[in-house]
Design brief:
The chain is mainly β. Helix content is 2%, strand content 47%. The protein has a domain of 131 residues: Jelly Rolls (Sandwich), CATH 2.60.120. The model has no long low-confidence stretch (mean pLDDT 96).
């Protein structure tokens, strides 16, 4: 594994041609995705600024151009009319090449339209000459030409009563209220995770510290909360956040999680009262930093996209000097005391040809490199081997046991294994018998939707040339489609 110096990681990109040879090289990778957004070069992580504006969806992502390393971060801009096919627009936020408030990175945040303009709220990662970190909450206006005009001063700096870990501002606009809120992930001086709330009557000025979010029962839950948000879905308030550096049952050795709590939010007292426990948002191996669209005008649902990756881990494409992609967009609703995640209906546009699942002598059938599988399941045990060899052996497996109503996803059978400390399997008890699976397979990922969104398993996978078969046992009816490309490897910086 390559060791990066600080100078290499925080090198300023002065000319797009500096990374063009890297783009040419990684575009030949067999693991480049066909219908998932991915890094144009280097590393992609958190989705940012997800919003509807000017008759299209805007999405940005954290981008380090030089390789599969966290260093100087830019915001890279992509747009879509339908959340299915996407177009690259290039860099949108550029860190200051000097001693500015974001001189070591434009970190995560959100976006919000004001009139016919769109404003970007982000964390400016500033480092002194002695490398002391200072976090600033910054504002920029996106122009019609796609370039941004940064406000000369930050909206505010770090709160001195907390550690320097304060980041990821999310704008919250309450219907009928004259007050806007901003929630920021933070860490107490005692090294516990928390969220801070700021308030203003003007989205561009006058932000003041309102207080720390109180979440009874979660005062010592991880040592940092990243990417916090409070959404209102189907009459319920939902607190989404990423608690770090803690263990959860059934999550193997993973220390960084993406999840939510259902409950009710009192903005007068800044108290989120939980109605139940913390739930993992995605039961798979690789999902983090989920972001909901900020101005969706539908009180019954939200639309979510997450980073298909994790902090503090590595992936096989690191050796190719690129890493990271985003999940498919998902529709969130509330059912009972859980969030339900389903693929957007628009994703059916990706379907190209219906493919027959003719099996060989071993009972296996060939799996296209970009495919959607839909299975109707009758009561009883079900076993799937996906991305297996020609004999239907190995691969990533899905096992459902009717007796316990538990579904287990295991990727230990893949020839290319990685992040072994995170564990090879993930299990989820189901509320009812397994009756439906909808599975999206791309060149280096798999997303499994169980029982119409009751559970989701998202995972990066890196199959060899031999691992392109599938085998199913159990009483199921399967339909399979090849999927059309939805992203283009386009060099646009």
């Amino acid at each position: 594994m390559r060791e990066w110096t600080r100078e290499e990681r925080y090198r300023y990109l002065r000319d797009p041609q500096e990374v063009y040879p890297l783009f040419e090289r990684i575009s030949q990778s067999s693991y480049r995705q066909l219908f998932h957004n991915q890094a144009v070069t280097g590393l992609m992580n958190d989705p940012n600024g997800f919003v509807w504006h000017d008759n299209r969806w805007h999405l940005f992502y954290q981008w380090c151009p030089w390789g599969a390393v966290h260093g100087l971060k830019y915001w890279y801009h992509i747009v879509s009319k339908d959340l299915v096919t996407w177009k690259n627009l290039g860099i949108c936020l550029i860190p200051d090449d000097g001693d500015g408030y974001d001189n070591k990175g434009a970190y995560s945040g959100s976006a919000f339209p004001i009139g016919d303009k769109m404003y970007l709220y982000y964390t400016g990662n500033h480092r002194d000459a002695d490398w002391t970190r200072h976090a600033y909450t910054c504002l920029a206006r996106l122009g019609d030409d796609g370039w941004t005009e940064k406000y000369p001063l930050p909206l505010f700096g770090a709160n001195p009563n907390y550690t320097e870990h304060q980041r990821d501002p999310k704008i919250i606009c309450l219907p009928g209220s004259d007050t806007y809120y901003m929630i920021i992930g933070a860490q107490t001086k005692e090294k516990t995770g928390c969220a801070l709330i700021y308030a203003s009557e003007d989205l561009q000025h006058g932000w003041t510290f309102a207080g720390e979010l109180k979440v009874p029962g979660f005062e010592h839950f991880g040592d940092m909360w990243e990417c916090p948000s409070i959404e209102h879905i189907g009459g319920k308030d939902v607190f989404l956040f990423c608690p770090q550096h803690m263990s959860l049952p059934g999550r193997g050795g993973s220390q960084n999680h993406n999840g939510y709590i259902l409950g009710s939010m009192d903005w007068d007292t800044l108290t989120f009262t939980p109605d139940g426990q913390f739930h993992v948002l995605d039961f798979g191996f690789d999902s983090y930093a989920a972001a909901c669209a900020n101005n969706l005008q539908d009180a019954d649902k939200a639309i979510l996209i997450a980073w298909m990756g994790l902090p503090d881990v590595s992936y096989p494409t690191d050796e190719e000097d690129w890493a990271g992609c985003l999940t498919l967009p998902r529709e969130l609703t509330v059912r009972g005391r859980r969030l339900i995640q389903q693929p957007l209906p628009e994703l059916k546009k990706l379907r190209d040809e219906r493919v027959e699942t003719a099996t060989n002598e071993a009972g296996a059938f060939r799996l296209p490199e970009a495919a959607e599988l839909e299975l109707d399941c009758r009561p009883g045990d079900v076993h799937l081997s996906l991305l297996a060899d020609e004999a239907g052996e190995g691969g990533i497996t899905i096992d459902y046991k009717e007796e316990t109503r538990e579904i287990l996803v295991d990727r230990s059978g893949m020839k290319t294994r990685f992040n072994l400390s995170e564990g090879d399997s993930r299990m989820r008890p189901l509320e009812s018998s397994l009756f439906h699976l909808r599975i999206f397979v791309d060149r280096s990922s798999i997303e499994i939707f169980v029982n119409d969104g009751d559970a989701v398993f998202t995972s990066r996978v890196f199959p060899t040339k031999e691992e392109h078969f599938a085998k199913i046992t159990g009483d199921t009816f399967i339909r399979m489609w090849t999927l059309k490309p939805a992203v283009k490897d386009q060099f646009l910086i």
